[in-house]
Fold:
Amino acid sequence: MRKELEKQYDPKRVEDRIYQSWLDGNYFHAANDPQKTPYTIVIPPPNITGQLHMGHALDNTLQDIIIRWRRMQGYDALWLPGTDHASIATEARIAATLRAEGTSKNELGRERYLERAWQWKEQYGGRIVEQLKKLGSSCDWERERFTLDEGCSKAVTEVFTRLYDKGLIYRGERIINWCPSCLTSISDAEVEYEDQAGHLWHLRYPLKDGTGHLDLATTRPETLLGDTAVAVNPGDERYKDMVGKTVILPLVGREIPVVADDYVDMEFGTGAVKITPAHDPNDFEVGLRHNLPVVCAMTDDAKINGDYPKYAGMDRYAARREIVKDLEAEGALIKVEDHAHNVGTCSRCKTTVEPKVSVQWFVKMEPLAGPAIDAVKNGETRFVPQRFEKIYFNWLESIRDWCISRQLWWGHRIPAWYCDGCGAINVAKETPESCRECGCADLTQDPDTLDTWFSSALWPFSTLGWPDDTDDLRHFYPTNTLVTGYDIIFFWVVRMMFSGVEHMGKAPFDTVLIHGLVRDAQGRKMSKSLGNGIDPLEIVDKYGADALRFTLATGNSPGNDMRFSDEKVEASRNFANKLWNAARFILMNLGENEPAPRVPTGLSTADKWILSRYNTLAAEATENLERFELGIAVQKLYEFIWDVFCDWYIELAKISIQQGGDAAVTAKGVLVYVLSNTLKLLHPFMPFITEEIWQTLPHEGETVMLSPWPVYDGSLHFAEEEAEMERVMAVVRAVRNRRAEMNVPPSKKAKLYIATAYRETFAAAETMFQKLAGASEIEVGGAFELDSTVSIVTNEAKVYIPMGELIDLETERLRLQKELEKAEKELSAVQGKLNNESFVAKAPEAVVAAQRENAARIEGKIGMLKESIAKL
RNA sequence: GGACGUUUAGCUCAGCUGGUAGAGCAUUCGCUUGACGUGCGAAGGGUCAGCGGUUCAAGUCCGUUAACGUCCACCA
Structure:
């Protein structure tokens, strides 16, 4: 006996040790070998504030499967890892820490604050990376990057200045989404809309000339403080005479005009709308068209500002209650209706976003969007599944300019300096000495930083060294596959696409593989607030990383959500254990110093059958991987290993091993060969257990993860033997089935008389029937005349078991009768087809031929069944 | 308002380019079978959401309806 494995696979004893051995071997490192074809995946950089969740686990498992497979195929496979500085999230985290210490961002000042932030990053920023390692991720850690590191920052500055010089970045006063809690602007993509129950307040604004009043409806009465007009539809007969007149704003007393604008929907409310340019994006547009003043009524933290002493300092909701009360007292409130409406919230903190007019930096999107759309239209980049192209196009086609400045400190500071003298904007890569307009030296840098996504947009090339012309950049760009969830297409994929096309002249990847969300067992989204999140590390701890990976890969089709449950992981764990025990059996039968696996000589039918099945598996699994059908590939591996290799071939091999001699040697050789190669096929999915087993088997090379990926081998294709085996297996199954039906204990053996046209095949399978079908012996012939037997009919054989005493003749007759009816029904279905002239004429010949054979087989079966019934 | 997805065995889901429905779990029956009870052998269970169409042939393609879900837009 060579080596003894434990009876049960224990991932805890294996995983960390194996991972360390891979690191020690430097196996994850992509050499940048010009002789090899590169295959590149850049990781979607997790936030440094992040904790590994199921979404990460899925995303990274898929990437690791792909990169391990490509690496084994001989590509110069690079999986480039890194993390994102996550400006808002990190600031929130640090703010909380500072609050606990009784201090604040402003108290510390920018410099000391940033020191703290970096400290925080050093302390916690690597946590998620360590967690990724637990999954077995084969990232090239030597190339690990951070969006705020020197190189990435250089890329950011380069891009900013380039786009500014091209006129694609500008600074201007616009209405933007403002988060009153994060105290920063956010982009359109960062706003989440949710339905909320609210009210529609009907208000009455009196006309200045005393001739009447104008009624209007609003969901936000408190913004009345900032009203600078009332608008009606120009085609609205009701208000025709009002346009151009002046109304008096209740509570405030401001005189504001009535304007006509197409924006107003006559059907809604009263057909008149209050216009608050400072606090509503649509109103802002109306304001621009009519030259209305912009009156801001709120502070940055969404409180009423000092211009309105009565309400000053109240937050927007308190002010709303107060203002409604006052309006009512003044008689300006006509009625209140219930009204559900969509409210924009900050995707980071869920606070209701406040539209706000302010000076910000923007990227002009239209010139960038076009080429990015083209890159997908012309096939340079494709989405898997393809339907996500639509989402991509839709977003880019209706894109608005991207607000990129953030009122935060943790991030890339905007490389713009304002001249204290002439006010000119100086955008430069380095701090300028003097103003380029007036030459004076008093310059102040813009205090804002850039949207986190501005730097992640450059990730596929900034991480490879851009803007420098590096070897890595030349070799690994464009990358191959981007793996990410559909929830991040707008934030990230779109921005990487237009950035890559703009700055590199090439789209950043050829394939975008989109996966869905991992939901809980009830199909709910996993979330912190629901508390239904499942911690992947707990799963790893309990079942092993391989079981987790296997679960995530199985039954997961691109783009679709999946449910996660412990039962599924248990099934995966059981599979790992099954494989482990198969290996254990094989090792128990191997001697010392066995040579590396190769196909032995003197193959039996069973040997050829399993080799041929394995060979097909290798071809099919590869094809599935190429099509990104990882779930199908892994399903096939599961089925082959469990149902084909373990349940059949190992049982058959036991027979040969017991026989000893050459048969035993050959069978052992085949066992090792097939197992060893199957381990390779399974390795990308279950890297740890496959490595552990592979190492204990005779092998060539240091590690399974660098062993060559199995390819289809024509010399292992044995169609005839496959057919022969399947014939015998069908009969074995049928006999087992009958015995089970009749409750024959396994210990009760019986002779089998097998009538068949394939006499040699069955005669050679006697031991198989003895071991697997409860046969004492078999006799094979063309036909038998026997009394009092149980008979079993398959398409290719009729089996008699002399066990008449065990059964009731009448039950047997009924059973056979039932089978006969079934067969006749089948036959008539097939004959119906064959009698259909258009089927015979139009269906492919092979299909027709198959049906003819089918008919012949069923006819044979019917004949045998009739004979059996007659005998009873 | 627009777009998309899902609907297949009791549950969770596969089913690629159309050729007589599959898996895991659950259920039932039988097994100290020399790798594994995290196992072995077997069984039951589906008019593939409804309707219409294309085709010799439809779970698979087209149209339509319904339920559920998601995204986008948004009228105060």
